[in-house]
Write a structure and sequence with these properties.
Blueprint lengths: L3 E2 L5 E2 L7 E5 L4 H12 L3 E6 L17 E5 L9 H4 L4 E4 L6 H6 L1 H22 L3 E7 L22 H20 L3 E6 L1 E3 L12 H10 L4 E4 L5 E2 L1 E3 H13 L5 E5 L5 E2 H8 L3 E4 L14 H7 L7 H10 L1
Parallel strand pairs: 3-4, 3-6, 4-5, 6-7, 7-8, 8-13, 9-12, 10-15
Antiparallel strand pairs: 1-2, 11-14
Helix pairs in contact: 1-7, 4-5, 6-8
The structure holds nicotinamide-adenine-dinucleotide.
Nicotinamide-adenine-dinucleotide binds next to helix 1, strand 4, helix 4, strand 7 and strand 9.
Length: about 325
């Protein structure tokens, strides 16, 4: 960032201190989009990632002095605080993030997501950050009884992935109340946008459709396709992060979705092409929709990108 000049054009002290942000999981889909936005507004970013699902190529376009990448497993390292020194903000996104593999290997998910979160929160506590944002998941609502679902509604943990993300959230919020840490937990609904994972058998619906369209295969639709989800574009999600770090809000949990429901058939219609219907999968909710009144009121955020606009942008690219 440029320094100020005095009346004779001489460079004087740079009054605008550059913010330093840590992103765990910064080489992944959401983390790399967040890195782009933070660097654009002048932050220095440190990414901590072990590349279990993230990719170096998601970050290749950044200059070395804006971004530092540390190849590290946050669940194994007890010395994260050395990277956290001088950090203003911590965005904790690193996690194993798929449902079926979590059922097959719960211990791995528990170690990675729960111990990983504990290590990150402990390190952040040592260095006194301005805000810690945790990536929680709407999967904590399981099969929601109330639609739209608010933060106060029932927790219903259906699989180890949901459980590990919810335990992580509990740790983050306990540290906020016990040690007055400035922590916020966002329960993401279905996030989509550039760099969404499209490979692998467990990628989410929009990722699957992108891969099927690319490979000229029919779009696979679970059940009758009338089930609905709340899809939020990653740019809207990142905008909420940026509003949250500037806000006075802390020790709070917020739903982070679009507040709009879209059926799988409607998504398939936007993609176009042939469809193939496959049997329903047990344990998946019929509908999922975020009540976003709390975040709208507290941090004055609202989603701006409609699913039609967001998908068009994604398909054009
Ligand atoms: N994408 C969604 O719709 C969605 C919904 C709800 C919650 N979330 C949460 O958001 C976060 C980011 O999700 P994403 O979609 O970008 O997933 P992603 O898999 O693209 O990103 C996760 C990143 O974390 C890294 N990582 C995992 N374990 C690590 C460890 N032990 N040490 C260091 N790095 C590690 C991976 O390499 C990857 O870069 C996750 O915590 C996920 O649970 C995502």
């Amino acid at each position: 960032m440029d320094g100020f000049k005095d009346i004779r054009g001489k460079e004087i002290i740079n009054k605008l201190k550059t913010s330093k942000s840590i992103i765990t999981g910064g080489a992944g889909f959401i983390g790399s989009n967040l890195a782009d936005h933070l660097i654009r507004i002048g932050h220095k970013v440190i990414v901590l990632d072990n590349f279990v699902s993230g990719k170096k190529s998601n970050l290749d376009h950044h200059k070395k002095n804006d971004l530092r990448i540390i190849n590290i497993d946050i669940s194994k390292s007890k010395k994260l605080d050395k990277y956290f020194k001088g950090a203003d903000y911590v965005f904790h996104l690193a996690a194993l993030a798929q449902i079926i593999p979590s059922i097959k290997n719960p211990e791995k998910y528990f170690k990675n997501n729960v111990l990983g979160t504990l290590n990150v929160v402990k390190a952040a506590k040592k260095v006194k950050i301005k805000k810690l944002i945790y990536a929680a998941s709407s999967s904590c609502y399981g099969t929601p009884k109330k639609i739209p679902t608010s933060e106060k509604d029932k927790i219903d943990l259906k699989h180890p992935y949901a459980a590990t993300k919810f335990i992580g959230e509990t740790i983050v919020m306990k540290y906020a109340s016990m040690f007055k840490m400035p922590n916020i937990s966002f329960r993401f609904f279905n996030v989509y946008g550039p760099r969404l994972t499209i490979s692998g058998q467990y990628s989410a619906v929009i990722g699957n459709f992108l891969s099927q369209k690319k490979n000229k295969k029919p779009l696979t639709i679970v059940g009758n396709g009338r089930q609905t989800r709340d899809f939020i574009h990653v740019d809207d999600l990142v905008d909420a992060f940026l509003k949250a770090i500037k806000s006075k809000s802390f020790n709070k949990i917020y739903n982070l979705g679009s507040g709009k429901k879209t059926s799988i058939n409607a998504i398939a219609k936007i993609f176009g092409g042939k469809k193939k219907f496959i049997p329903i999968r047990p344990g998946e909710p019929k509908n999922s929709l975020a009540n976003i009144s709390k975040i709208k009121k507290d941090i004055k955020w609202r989603p701006k990108i409609s699913i039609e606009q967001g998908l068009k942008k994604l398909l054009d690219n």
